[in-house]
Design brief:
GO terms for molecular function: hydrolase activity; ribonuclease T2 activity; RNA binding. By secondary structure, the chain is α+β, with helices and mostly antiparallel strands. It is 22% helix and 15% strand. It has a single domain, classed as Ribonuclease T2-like (Ribonuclease Rh, Chain A).
């Protein structure tokens, strides 16, 4: 598996942890209960980028041959065991200069796959990194290389193959030591979530053994056989996608 690039220093990532800690305890002056675990959400660009109808300079799907072809980071989120999560952060300032040394890696491994500006707390708008601040994010991403795990098990990007959901789950369980949660769109893997205790040791995303079977049913939103579609590179061209995509209704 890929190792963490040397230029990503722990002190710089620790700054992000200090920022993200504001999210855990207060919303508009109302105390929130302590969260239970972290969920690392990884998005599959081959599925996300199929929905791209318009391109912009901030959309990672629109970078032609430089568009992502591996799982990229969506976020590292504090969650509750009951399926809910802390809804918002207390007011805190995000200074992108604090992570200037990380920008190259963030743009590559944590790109935005849309043209919209993610909403920050209290109705504001901001960058994806301001919306999803966290610390061990890049460390976890490289340590648990989901793309490498799946490729090693024979699950590679393809527009023709369908793969057993149970096989994908088992491959990740064997490598990570805990059960993931999968999210699908039109029978294609859209997101894979890995879950961690507060000390960042892996844990099952569903801890109730009675409901663990739901990983292969409604809780994962995936059928028994799923696809990992290839990402067809889009190139920015007058604000429009270089190739037209079928509408969601037509692509079903």
């Amino acid at each position: 598996m890929a190792s963490l690039p040397a230029k990503i220093s722990f002190p710089a990532l620790f700054i992000l942890l200090v920022f993200s800690s504001f999210c855990l305890f207060e919303i508009e002056g109302i105390a929130q209960r302590e969260f239970d675990y972290f969920a690392l959400a990884l998005q599959w660009p081959g599925t996300y980028c199929q929905r791209t109808h318009h391109c912009c300079s901030s959309n990672g799907c629109c970078k032609g041959s430089n568009s992502p072809t591996e799982f990229t980071i969506h976020g590292l989120w504090p969650d509750y065991n009951d399926g809910t999560w802390p809804a918002c952060c207390s007011r805190s300032n995000f200074n992108i200069k604090e992570i200037s040394s990380l920008l190259g890696d963030l743009q590559k491994y944590w790109p935005s796959l849309s043209c919209g500006s993610p909403s920050t707390c209290f109705g504001g708008r901001g960058s994806l990194w301001a919306h999803e601040r966290s610390t061990e994010l890049l460390n976890l991403y490289f340590k648990y290389n989901v793309t490498g795990i799946l490729n090693g098990a024979g699950y590679v990007a393809s527009n023709n193959e369908k793969y057993p959901l149970g096989g994908i789950v088992s491959a990740i369980e064997n490598a990570v030591g805990a059960s993931p949660l999968l999210v699908c769109s039109h029978n294609a893997v859209e997101e894979i979530r890995l879950c961690f205790y507060k000390d960042f040791k892996p844990r099952d995303c569903i801890i109730d053994s009675a409901s663990k079977g739901d990983l292969l049913a409604s809780k994962s939103s995936c059928p028994k056989y799923v696809s990992l579609p290839k990402n067809v590179p889009l190139k920015l061209k007058n604000g429009e996608a270089a190739v037209p995509w079928l509408s969601e209704a037509e692509s079903q």
